């Protein structure tokens, strides 16, 4: 790793170690330690500019969101800051054409891929509820839509169908079952899509990638920060509630291939919902509340069809560790959906 990249930012001290961290599928993330210090001071990220082509608008969204959270969040959570480059920009382009940004590191923080207990789930619910609640009035002008139609079900279903028809890498025959599973549920899912953006389910400012590892916890298990702000943009509250449940109330990680282990932990689900609604429940509309229990199934469905579409197009979007990785992820989400369908009565709030 070229230390010169970090040195192009306004850092305090001399760059020491740069080490990879995290399990994300899109960007590359590193901790940066300053010489003479034991703990990291910064987080360096290489931005995937194929997926996020408008780097300027992407960084502007993050800058606006972090400022707003700092000013209006009542100090309840720590907010990481974008560090400027020496020429006062929020990103740096290296000679090889890559784009980089630097954040302040939240000290003494840990992230998890599953919730270790009910208390963590409540904490996570509080943190994401605080996030959506605090950003609710950041709309003048609205944040930039960094990935158009990111959680638009109609668009994602069309993409899946098109990719299956094109069958570029001849994988459609391998995924007949998976395609059948997802396409057989599309009408039921689309009913919800039509309500988004109406007064009943208004557009808010949402995080749109509310996995549990995008919350930092301290050593006492308290949530201390919400991170990974690439996809902060207008969205429905269901996106954040539903996407969070996929990892916070899941019995197994997203990459688990022993499908009998995959499912919803109803206690963790209720704990997350309690924490989330505690922070934001009173400002939700009746329709938003009615649809909340369906949101985890809808978001698992969206993620499942995105994994499957990527498998069908030859793995061009998500990072993979082996050639079956994306179809296995799509199967994992199927198992989660089936379990949530069985538990739909228990999921009522
Ligand atoms: P990705 O998009 O690849 O998931 P993240 O922004 O979530 O990238 O960062 C990956 C991991 O790096 C996080 O799960 C967390 O452990 C750590 N991390 C990211 N930002 C910070 C920060 N500001 N302070 C401390 N740790 C961080
Ligand atoms: C991607 O890179 P990561 O893990 O933060 C994806 C999310 C998916 C997630 C699935 C921009 O997020 O939408 O839910 O993988 N982010 C983007 O694990 O596509
Ligand atoms: Mg992340």
Itemize the secondary structure elements and their pairings.
Blueprint lengths: L2 H5 L7 E6 L7 E7 L7 E6 L7 H18 L9 E2 L8 E2 L5 E6 L13 H17 L18 H14 L9 H9 L1 H8 L10 E3 L8 E3 L5 E4 L6 E3 L1 H12 L17 H15 L5 H6 L3 H19 L11 H18 L7
Antiparallel strand pairs: 1-2, 2-3, 3-6, 4-6, 5-6, 7-10, 8-9
Helix pairs in contact: 3-7, 3-8, 4-10, 7-10, 10-11
Bound molecules: adenosine-5'-diphosphate, 2-acetamido-2-deoxy-1-O-phosphono-alpha-D-glucopyranose and magnesium ion.
Output the keywords.
349 residues, alpha+beta, Phosphorylase Kinase, domain 1, Aminoglycoside 3'-phosphotransferase, Chain: A, domain 2, 2 domains, six-stranded antiparallel beta sheet, two-stranded antiparallel ribbon, 11 helices, 10 strands, 40% helix, 12% strand, globular, binds adenosine-5'-diphosphate, binds 2-acetamido-2-deoxy-1-O-phosphono-alpha-D-glucopyranose, binds magnesium ion
The tally of beta strands, per DSSP, is: 10
Radius of gyration: 20 Å
The whole-number mean of residue pLDDT values reads 97
The assigned structural class equals: alpha+beta
Binned, the helix content reads: 40-55%
Shape, per Cα inertia axes: globular
Intertermini distance: 48 Å
Q: What small molecules does this complex bind?
A: adenosine-5'-diphosphate, 2-acetamido-2-deoxy-1-O-phosphono-alpha-D-glucopyranose, magnesium ion
């Amino acid at each position: 790793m070229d230390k010169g990249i970090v040195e192009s930012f306004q850092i305090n001290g001399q760059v020491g170690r740069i080490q990879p961290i995290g399990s994300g599928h899109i960007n590359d993330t590193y901790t940066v330690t300053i010489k003479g210090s034991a703990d990291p001071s910064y987080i360096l990220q290489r931005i995937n500019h194929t997926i996020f082509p408008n780097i300027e608008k992407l960084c502007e969204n993050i800058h606006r969101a972090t400022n707003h959270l700092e000013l209006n969040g009542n100090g309840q959570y720590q907010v990481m800051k974008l560090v400027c480059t020496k020429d006062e920009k929020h990103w740096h382009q290296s000679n090889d054409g890559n784009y980089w940004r630097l954040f302040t590191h939240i000290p003494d923080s840990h992230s998890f891929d599953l919730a270790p207990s009910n208390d963590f789930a409540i904490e996570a619910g509080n943190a994401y509820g605080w996030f959506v609640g605090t950003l609710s009035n950041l709309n003048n002008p609205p944040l930039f839509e960094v990935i158009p139609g990111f959680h638009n079900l109609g668009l994602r279903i069309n993409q899946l169908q098109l990719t299956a028809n094109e069958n570029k890498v001849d994988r459609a025959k391998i995924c007949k079952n998976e395609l059948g599973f997802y396409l057989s549920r599309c009408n039921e899912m689309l009913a919800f899509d039509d309500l988004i953006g109406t007064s009943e389910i208004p557009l808010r400012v949402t995080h749109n990638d509310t996995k549990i590892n995008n919350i930092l916890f301290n050593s006492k298990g308290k949530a201390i920060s919400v991170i990974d702000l690439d996809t902060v943009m207008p969205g429905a509250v269901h996106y954040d509630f539903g996407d969070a449940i996929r990892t916070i109330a899941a019995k197994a990680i997203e990459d688990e291939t022993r499908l009998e282990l995959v499912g919803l932990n109803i206690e963790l689900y209720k704990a997350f919902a309690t924490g989330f609604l505690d922070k934001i429940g009173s400002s939700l509309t009746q329709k938003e509340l009615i649809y909340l229990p369906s949101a985890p199934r809808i978001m698992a469905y969206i993620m499942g069809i995105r994994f499957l579409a990527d498998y069908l197009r030859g793995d061009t979007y998500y990072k993979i560790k082996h050639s079956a990785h994306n179809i296995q992820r799509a199967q994992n989400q199927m198992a989660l959906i089936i379990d949530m369908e069985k538990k739909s009565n228990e999921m009522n709030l």
